[in-house]
């Protein structure tokens, strides 16, 4: 018997709104988990794997196209890896959760014990890799758990706008471990065996990242190339490693002074409220070209807050056409006090 597994890395590289508050793309996190899951599954006997998204991320393949591919291929299970968001700004919310379908439709049942067992195995695998709070199993009417005809699970590894979770999500080793753990969980659930010599390749622990000092010494030895090639290989560590290389090669040179970090409009607005920038002309002089933007933000913060409906209620109203489309919808939602990206995320999951 061959187990056919359909994999979906949520969204695409350029999908609007799918970002951390610092602009990092959700797809890049989802893709790293999905690649590790794919690679590990192929180390087992009797497994075929199909990615239903675009592995390059250039195209955000529609949800209907993803489920169609999986259904026509005859997949046995469907796994969609995502990372969550709450309000699109940093907070301390945290945790891992996984979803199955919440209804009875098209031959699917909300209480299918096999589907629930798969969801639990995958969720536990991610919790083990990430070490975040286990928010458990949940049921929703998401397209990626409703439309695939096979067992289907949508995972939310952690919150991209959580100051707690982002430390894990930015760690490539953790992302790879999540994918590897999920593959091993599927193998255990279905009694799969590793191919011959692959037994020795099973990771026993998360690989340890090299320190900036180690990487700097390797750069000096010529191990990471030059220019753009070096920058690509070192990724997010490039600036720190290059600074250390410069220090080693020019020990007497004085480091360039760090520019003072520029405060955001929101930070300045809160300082104004705290009385730090005076009033009237004094405030205008202190804030300079940012005065109008900061004063507008002050007015927004101090304005009385309307009572907001729950986000899922607003998402349903959007589906019903009550909030318009495109930029008009975005403007109306934000004027009403709602986070556009959060609402749109909920809407996308309904289709």
Largest sheet: number of strands, sense, barrel closure? 6 strands, mixed
Q: Compute the average pLDDT.
A: 87
From the alpha-carbon coordinates, what is the Rg to the nearest angstrom?
24 Å
Task: Tell how many strands the DSSP assignment holds.
Answer: 6
Shape category: flat
* Helix and strand sequence: EHEHEEHEHEHHHHHHHHHHH
Task: Walk me through the structure.
With 351 residues, the protein is an alpha/beta fold. The chain has 15 helices and six strands. It has helices at residues 26-41, 63-73, 113-130, 143-146, 166-169, 172-190, 212-220, 227-234, 238-249, 265-273, 280-287, 291-302, 311-319, 326-335, 340-349, and strands at residues 3-9, 47-51, 77-84, 96-101, 134-140, 151-159. The chain has a six-stranded mixed β-sheet with strand order 2-1-3-6-4-5, sandwiched between helices. Helix 3 (113-130) links the parallel strand 4 (96-101) and strand 5 (134-140). Helix 1 (26-41) packs across helix 6 (172-190), helix 7 crosses helix 9 and helix 10 (265-273) packs across helix 12. The longest helix is centred in the middle third of the chain and has 19 residues, at 172-190.
Structural descriptors:
351 residues, flat, alpha/beta
Quick structural overview:
This protein has 351 residues and is α/β, with parallel strands linked by helices.
């Amino acid at each position: 018997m061959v187990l056919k597994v359909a994999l979906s890395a949520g969204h695409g590289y350029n999908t609007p709104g799918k970002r951390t508050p610092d602009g990092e793309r959700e797809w890049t996190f989802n893709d790293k988990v999905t690649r590790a899951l794919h690679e590990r599954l192929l180390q087992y006997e009797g497994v075929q794997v199909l990615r239903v998204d675009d592995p390059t991320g250039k195209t955000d393949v529609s949800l209907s196209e993803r489920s169609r591919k999986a259904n026509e291929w005859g997949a046995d299970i469907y796994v969609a890896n995502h990372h969550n968001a709450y309000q699109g700004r940093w907070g301390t919310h945290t945790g891992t959760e996984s979803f199955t379908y919440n209804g009875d439709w098209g031959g699917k049942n909300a209480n299918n014990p096999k589907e629930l067992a798969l969801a639990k195995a995958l969720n536990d695998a991610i919790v083990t890799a990430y070490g975040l709070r286990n928010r458990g199993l949940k049921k929703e009417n998401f397209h990626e758990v409703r439309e695939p005809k096979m067992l289907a699970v949508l995972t939310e590894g952690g919150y991209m706008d959580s100051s707690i979770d982002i430390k894990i999500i930015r760690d490539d080793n953790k992302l790879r471990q999540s994918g590897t753990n999920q593959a091993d969980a599927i193998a255990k659930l279905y009694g799969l065996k590793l191919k011959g010599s692959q037994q020795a390749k099973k990771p026993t622990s998360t690989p340890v990242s090299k320190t900036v000092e180690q990487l700097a010494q390797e750069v000096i030895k010529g191990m990471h190339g030059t220019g753009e090639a070096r920058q690509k290989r070192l990724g997010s560590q490039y600036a720190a490693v290059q600074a250390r290389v410069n220090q080693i090669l020019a020990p007497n040179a004085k480091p360039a002074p760090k520019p003072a970090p520029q405060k955001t409009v929101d930070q300045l607005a809160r300082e104004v409220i705290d009385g730090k920038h005076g009033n009237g002309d004094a405030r205008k002089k202190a804030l300079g070209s940012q005065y109008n933007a900061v004063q507008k933000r002050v007015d927004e913060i101090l304005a009385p807050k309307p009572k907001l409906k729950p986000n899922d209620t607003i998402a349903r109203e959007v589906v019903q056409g009550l909030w318009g489309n495109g930029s008009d919808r975005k403007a109306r939602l934000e004027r009403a006090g709602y986070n556009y990206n959060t609402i749109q995320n909920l809407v996308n999951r309904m289709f």
